[in-house]
Amino acid sequence: MKQFKSHIMFTKQQRYGIFLLLFIMVSLQCIYWFWNPFEVKDTLSPDSLKVFQKEIDSLKNIELKDTTPQILPFNPNYITDFKGYTLGMSNEEIDRLHAFRAQNKWINSTADFQKVTGVSDSLLQVIAPYFKFPDWINQKSKALKPRTQYSNRKLTFSQKLDLNKATAAQLQSVYGVGEKLSLRIVRFRDSFNGGFISDIQLQDVYGLTPDVIEAIKEKFTVKTPRAVVKLNLNTANTDDLVKVQHIDYPLAKAILEYRTLHEGYRDLDELLKVKGFPLQKLDIIKLYLAIN
Questions:
Q1: Coil, helix or strand for 161?
Q2: Which residues cross the membrane (predicted)?
Q3: Which DSSP letter does residue 74 get?
Q4: What does the pLDDT look like over 214-258, one tens digit per residue?
Q5: Is residue 150 part of a domain?
Q6: How far apart are CA 34 and CA 26, in angstroms?
Q7: DSSP letter (8 states) at residue 115
Q8: Residue closest to 171 by CA, chosen among 156, 159, 186, 157
Q9: Segment (H or E) for 231
């Protein structure tokens, strides 16, 4: 049997070279693991470290201030869910504000905002400086002073101007009614063939606050109301009811369902018991209805 013979043969010098290469590789690996030439020894004193830390902290504060969202002046009547969240308001406080605005009511002061939303004094103190109300609201207190001097001299019905015939220029004589509001009142009035039925319809004019409405009613009133044939609430059908302001098809069906369940209405105020009925619009809706 022939003895196995390796086909790989090295000379003596080659073997020395291989051993030397292995030695160099092992040495470099040890140097890599046990010696770090980039290691920097801490040569700073404690006082120097404190100064250095203060500089870092000041830079962090500057960066935090730059990245903090800046609050710009805003009208609190138009706070959205996201805006309220960023201001620190709770969901309940935001919902109270939206429910109040859904009644076509307006917040005209910081006190009104807290009364409606129920925010804490601490939060109000932070966000109130950014409230921005219309100029006529900010000057309202100045205008009320001279008016109080004549509070006992109210105009009679005959002395007041007819709201259905008043011009935009005449309406601007009322404090709080500017060019835009006066034109808005006239356009809304003229959208009805015959004008207003009652002064209460001023509530439907967008942008009119209760105080401004009262100021208008001191000088103006409906003297020539639009003629309206009132619907009998106990016989009217869905198509009849939807012609009434603020009544849509779902509400009309709810009104008829209540009428069926209770065998008719005995009083118009019973509409308040109908599910989904707009409570704040009852007086306006009653202008079109009757019970025969």
A1: strand
A2: 16-35
A3: B
A4: 999 999 999 999 999 999 999 999 999 999 999 999 999 999 999
A5: yes
A6: 12
A7: H
A8: 186
A9: strand 231-232
